[in-house]
Amino acid sequence: MTTTNDILVIEDDEIMREALAEWLEAAGYVVRKAADGSAGLAAVRSAAPALVVTDIHMPGTSGAVVIAELQRHHPDIPVIAISGLFQFGRGLDADSAVALGAARALAKPFTRRELLQAVTVADLAARKRAEYLTRQVFESASDGVAVIGRDYRYQRVNPVYERNWGMPAERIVGMHVADLSGTDVFERTLKPNLDRCLAGEHVTFAEWFTTELGRFYLSVSYSPLRLDSERLEAVLVISRDLTEHVLASEALREAQAALARVNRVTTLGVLAASIAHEVNQPLTAMVASAGSCARWLAARPPELEKAQRSLERIARDGKRASEVIDRIRALVMRQPPRRDLVDVKETILDVIALTRDQMRRNDIALEKTLAEGLPPVWGDRVQLQQVVLNLIVNAVEAMSASGDRPRQLVIGASEAEGGVCIEVRDSGPGIAPEIADKLFEPFCTSKPQGIGMGLSISRSIVEAHGGRLWAASNPPHGALFQLSLPTGEREP
Ligand SMILES: Nc1ncnc2c1ncn2[C@@H]1O[C@H](COP(=O)(O)OP(=O)(O)OP(=O)(O)O)[C@@H](O)[C@H]1O
Ligand SMILES: [Mg+2]
Quick one: angle between helices 304-332 and 454-464, nearest 10? Predict the structure, then answer.
């Protein structure tokens, strides 16, 4: 309700209509007139009046219909029903008119005073209702709401606004915005935005504010307010406290950054440890070959052919070391493994060849149960060799450390459902119970010289190939490691 002096009079009797209009105009109201209910409703649709005075008994659309329609579409427009028949008990009576939604019912004839009084009372009631509603919205809004005048002073604030700034409304109202926010924020952010709004723009922004209660982050919107005239008189402020939200997302961002840092460091650590672990074997082999090469050359006469073979072995192991480093780097950086068709049996035999010396030195009897005609698996041959090598070296180390029980190593490969199963079993002491559940974690070792990387690398490789690696015991003594690798139609 912006203007209260615009009244629509709906009355079919021309003399009555003119008389009513005259009375109301004389009292300072602006009056529009309609001669029946449908013309009246059309007038309401083209511009809503502040109040409607309607006759009840009219040919065509009756006053009862007008009241019901207004009640449905414009419940905020008060209606005064007038009728010459209320007191005769014919048609709609006064109580029914009120029940339909009329603010007042006046029986004809009535005096000018009675009409003006009815208009005032109905209008006041409507204003009160509208004001009550506005106040309710203002008071119970869950955001901070305030009205700021052209002089940058607060005119009104709601309870949330009081809470946000930790100050009662009595103190804030009349205060200059700069006194509440601090001159800095006012000059830098608030004033420019308020000025834009006072020029008619709708403005939104978000900003950190510091008060005695601490720092908080507000999302603010400024809307131009025209109170009574067309002139822009004030700014409606709606502010929402997003401090917790912002702090939570900052904390999340920091946690993510910290995690990324940890991951990078861990990745580098794992990479270094993995390379150190995997390169050890070819390096040891190269040193041994270099030693024999020197011996063949020192022999009288020098055994040139054998020296040459030693050199070839050195070259081969050097090449292998560099391949291993490449694969480890790819693995740690989580690149997918190469996809070649790998013959499992050949791969295992290669590794056995690499470890034959070590087995002989440690008195280990090797049994091979390698099934014929195994389907090839898609994968990286060098990486799969590393897995088998790590399992064999662990088994050899476990048995070498244990007493004089027969040292028996069984390496098997067989076809399993959807793939190939490889197993390495030994007759050593078995897996120590205290580390059984973290065996495959990096740096988990029970050995004085161990790095604890072998099983962790092996599991990463097997899983990158879509397979599984697990440990079990090998009764009565020893450990059993098994891995499955999928075969099937996967293309490289
Ligand atoms: N065949 C086995 N028998 C008994 N325990 C084993 C066997 N294989 C592995 N383990 C246990 O698992 C642990 C982890 O093995 P892993 O290969 O990951 O590291 P490591 O052998 O200790 O050190 P490295 O990094 O030098 O290989 C070993 O320290 C050992 O306690
Ligand atoms: Mg190991």
Answer: 70
Q: How far is the CA of 262 from the centre of ligand 2 (A)?
A: 25
Residue 312: helix, strand or coil by DSSP? helix
Query: Would you call the peptide bond into 301 cis, given omega within 30 degrees of 0 as the criterion?
Result: yes
CATH of the domain at 418: 3.30.565.10
Q: DSSP E strands: which ranges in 151-194?
A: 154-157
Half-sphere exposure (CA, 13 Å, Cβ side) for 270? 22
Q: Where are the beta strands (DSSP E) in 162-249?
A: 203-211, 214-225, 234-241
Write out pLDDT tens, residues 93-149. 777 778 788 888 888 889 999 999 988 888 877 777 778 888 888 888 899 999 999
The last residue of a domain, from among 104, 137, 170: 137
Q: List ligand 1's pocket residues with C-beta within 6 A.
A: 277, 390, 394-395, 398, 426, 428, 430-432, 435, 439, 444-447, 450-456, 479
Is the pTM above the cut of 0.70? no
Give the residue, by CA position, lying nearest to ligand 1 atom 5: 431
Give the distance (Å) from ligand 2 centre to CA of residue 283: 16
Q: Is residue 263 part of a domain?
A: yes
